[in-house]
Amino acid sequence: MKSTENKKAERLSQQEYLSTLNDPQRDAVLYGNGPLMIIAGAGSGKTRVLTYRIAHLIENGVDPFRILSLTFTNKASGEMRQRIEGAVGMEARNIWMGTFHSVFAKILRIEARYLGYTSDFSIYDTDDSKSLLRSIIKELNLDDKIYKANVVFNRISGAKNRLVSAEEYQNNAIIQQDDEAAKMKEMGRLYKIYVTRCFQANAMDFDDLLYNTNILFRDFPDVLYKYQHKFQHVMVDEFQDTNVSQYLITRKLSAVHRNIVVVGDDAQSIYAFRGANIENILNFSKDFPDVATIKLEQNYRSTSNIVNAANSVIARNKSQLDKKTFTANEEGALIDVIKAGSDNEEGRLVATAIFEEKMQKALRNENFAILYRTNAQSRSFEEALRKLGIKYRIIGGQSFYQRKEIKDLLGYLRFTVNQRDEEAFKRIINLPKRGIGDTSIARITVTAAENNVAVWDVVANIGNFATGRTTAGIEQFGTVIKSFKILLEQDKDAYEIASHIAKASGLLKELYEDKTVEGLSRYENVQELLNGIKEFVDNPDAEDKSLSAFLQSVSLLTNADEPDDNEDHDRVTMMTIHSAKGLEFRNVFIVGLEEDLFPSQMMLESRQDLEEERRLFYVAITRAEQKLSFSYAESRYQWGRLKMCEPSRFLLEVDPRYLNISDSMQRGRDREAANSPMSFVKNLSPRKPVEPRAIPAASSVHSPSTDFVASDTSQLLEGEKVEHMKFGFGIVTKMDVNGSDRKATVKFDKVGEKTLLLSFAKLRIVK
So what's the pLDDT on residue 755? Predict the structure, then answer.
């Protein structure tokens, strides 16, 4: 396994680990001071380079407290820290390493007073933010069909990522015109109220962690000076995924020492919808004219056919840095192209291909991944895999920390730490039921906002604000929270407080009394959360074991950091291509390769959007190590209607030399011919012996004629004899012309029928 190999390498001496690197990798590790850009192609070993560079700095006298390393997932930073620790020892724990959000949250907690927050501020997740926005929209009597919480949230998020404040938003004429065109004139007002309510709740959302760090460094030069001189070396992984806000912060932090190292691949920039700005990497040299550039172009992950196919696709993008990825790995199998009559049949054909490959090669389910453009495509593959008894897991389903029972207990924990947290308050005040209705809860939040006080101030003094039957329930809630605050003031650790709150709040009792299967599952989930808190407290590396520290660690988890619920890891992995970034699998199926699906219909309005979709396809291809397959359907149900589909333009952009079209398309025709359910079951039966497909030996590859010169094929006709450098001699059986795309179907003597795109294929017409 690769992880074992890495650990072995980390125990080597400096001289030994340098000898394990290729020349460009070694140059990147040993590079001295000054700005450095490392262009790291897919599978080129960038994690190893970053690990060894940090280890090399520490071994050469750089204080680890003065190294800042920024990643995009906690998992990535954790693995990197572990590797560095294996190389240089416990000093690795002193590196400032983590995601942008976790590192900046740490800085904001230290410097919170400058911005008017306390160090125990809450971090709102997306659900919290949308819940607050729904409350504000309702309070303002706005039409929630026009002012949808999701749309409003995304507009505010986009503004913050561009560092546009609520005041600037309201005063920008162009933005106001856009809002009026969208019939959302009150957007600026909503933005302003949302920001105010978050501040009153002593809460920041995820975008605030970046936005407020920029404000902190902009408005308080002494704070900026402190961190500029603290961090002697700044390193940024996945630099192509940074947004404007992230780049400005890192540029400011590195302005004094100018030892900034950015690592990325413009060909893998796929997060523009989250605000990522590819211009950050394309124009890095403009901000740092003296930057050195090192290219890691050797791919260690994939076969030659896969690497070359990926190159043939990404070469069509105009906005990119010059590089040419290559590999010394074996040529490998050609890429199968699976044609299906419908989306359901696509699911069956892919599941069957997985079953056959498992039988032929004695592989495990975990060796396979199915990648799609949208989550909605998973259904047909789930059904087909279940019918063949193949276990699978879907990445990107409901997060453990998004389950209701988990958020309920976390709500109690959050409100115990921060009594200004309005969203936590609304979640728990009537949980378990205390006879407090939605109207009463809304009245409390509005009263707090009108009086510019926290909701807790209203609850703790409810007699001054309200009368009636509900006040008893509110007073009871206040008493419960006060008892929890006493535990907090006694410096109990996170587990002691959380386990007490789970019992004393009544949450555990209510779940325990629900004897349904779902109720048992919810009870077990809460117990698992408590187990996780105990593990957090028992971790010897955790300096701060407080409830506040635990809540911060949970709030900063990303989807990639989520625990896997399945103890059985031998499952086919299914996920969107965006979720697959940074992962690799032995066998990969990229499915749904149809126009308007991939590329998405939403991404065809500009060259920039289309090039991002092409980069997404490139990322998907480069997840595969040894075997890659494409699939598409000729028809698909969308919005309750049957739609006829055409193959994706991306399929046509792959150099046909690396495709195996004929065999897979023949399988598709065979399945179409088997119309009856019984014949279909017979064809797919696991008991049916599977004949391994013959793979031509290297010696059987065609040697081109000595006089081989590619002919002009613009007038190629059916029936003509041709020669291909690899496939040998054959007869053109069909010509297919679609605009500028001309394809020829050729029946070759040795390898059978192939469909070739004439703009790529080199053919000699034999007279």
Answer: 80
Q: How far apart are CA 576 and CA 623, in angstroms?
A: 12
237 vs 46, 80, 180, 260, CA distance in Å? 9, 11, 39, 11
Q: What is the DSSP string of 59-104?
A: HTT--GGGEEEEES-HHHHHHHHHHHHHHH-GGGGGSEEEEHHHHH
Q: From CA 297, how far away is CA 21, in angstroms rounded?
A: 13
**Both structure tokens of 231:** 């961090």
Q: Give the residue carrying structure tokens 């546009």.
A: 164
> For residue 193, what are the contacts with CB-CB under 8 A and spacing of at least 6?
136, 140
**What secondary structure, in 3-state letters, does 128-193 show?**
HHHHHHHHHHHHCCCCCCCCCHHHHHHHHHHHHHCCCCHHHHHHCHHHHHHHHHCCCCCHHHHHHH
Sign of CA dihedral 508, 510, 516, 522: negative
β-pairing, 122-124 vs 292-296, is unpaired
Going by pLDDT thresholds of 50, 70 and 90, the confidence category of residue 691 is very low
For residues 332 and 627, is the Cβ–Cβ distance under 8 A? yes
Residue 184 burial (CB count, 10 A): 19
Q: Which has more pLDDT, 669 or 323? A: 323
Residue 675 has pLDDT above 60, yes or no: no
406 three-class SS:
helix
The SS3 assignment for 749 reads coil
pLDDT tens sequence across 434-493: 888 888 888 888 888 888 888 888 888 887 777 777 788 888 899 999 999 998 888 888
Find out whether 314 and 606 touch, Cβ atoms under 8 Å.
Answer: no
pLDDT recorded at residue 15: 63
Phi/psi of residue 406, nearest 5 degrees: -70, -45
In one letter, which amino acid is 508? Answer: L
Among 697, 728, 733, 700, which residue's Cα sits nearest to residue 716?
733
Of 571, 572, 612, 616, give the one whose Cα is nearest residue 592: 616
Which sequence positions are flagged as catalytic?
Answer: 46-47, 237-238, 268, 623
In angstroms, the CA 633 to CA 481 distance is 57
Residue holding tokens 């150099």?
A: 655
- pLDDT-based confidence at 19, cuts 50/70/90? confident
Question: What does the pLDDT look like over 177-195, one tens digit per residue?
Answer: 888 888 999 999 999 999 9
- Degrees, nearest 5: CA angle 522-526-528: 110
Query: What is the spatial distance between Cα 387 and Cα 45, in angstroms, rounded to a whole number?
Result: 39
Q: What is the pLDDT of residue 390?
A: 92
CA-wise closest residue to 427 among 442, 407, 444, 447: 407
Examine residue 221 and say whether the peptide bond preceding it is cis (omega within 30 degrees of 0).
no
Please name every residue paired with 736 in a beta bridge, in sequence order, or none if there are none: 743
76's tokens: 């990535």
The pLDDT of 701-724, averaged and rounded, is 79
Phi-psi region of 662 (alpha: psi -120 to 50; beta: other; left: phi over 0): alpha
In sequence order, the 6+-apart residues with CB closer than 8 A to the CB of 357 are 363, 368, 587, 627
pLDDT of residue 566: 53
Q: In whole angstroms, what is the distance from residue 137 CA to residue 206 CA?
A: 21
pLDDT in tens, 357-405: 999 999 999 999 999 998 878 888 988 998 898 999 888 755 677 788 9
Tokens of 337: 């192209």
Is there a contact between 417 and 423 (Cβ–Cβ < 8 Å)?
no
Helices (H), 278-403: 279-282, 284-287, 304-314, 343-361, 378-387
DSSP 688: S
Distance (Å, whole) CA 88 – CA 52: 10
Write b or e for each residue in 338-361: b if 16 or more Cβ atoms lie within 10 A of its Cβ, otherwise e. Answer: bbbebbbbbbbbbbbbbbbbbeee
User: In the beta sheet, which residues pair with residue 203?
Assistant: 122
